Amino acid sequence: MSCADAVAKLLADGHFSCYFSKVLPSALDCSEPIVVTESAFVRESRMAEEERGTVSVTVMVVREVSADAEAVAGACERAVRSGAWEPYAEMWPWRIIGVDTSAPSFKERDSSGRFVWTFEVACTVVREL
Fold it and tell me: In a 3-state reduction of DSSP, which class is residue 111?
């Protein structure tokens, strides 16, 4: 599993959306998805049995109305920031030991005219060697 999967599971358990994706789907496939992607692991330290670093997760909320996208993105960000991470922390090969979020912001209007609001989740992770 990945850090993006952990964030998506936390949001799904919080009843934010019934549809999550790792790519921005066509409006024909899903009109209002929440898209969760992640970047590569960046190591900050290495010890004999583990390494620590960060994985950045991007959450994109897509809605037909900009105010709805902004409101849902804000609610998602609050849920991630203040959520209980214990059930989601063990996502092999990572163990999430901390999260920090950015404030949601408008990203773009996609090719279907939908509004996309986004925020970042910096996951501090440990990987056993």
Answer: coil
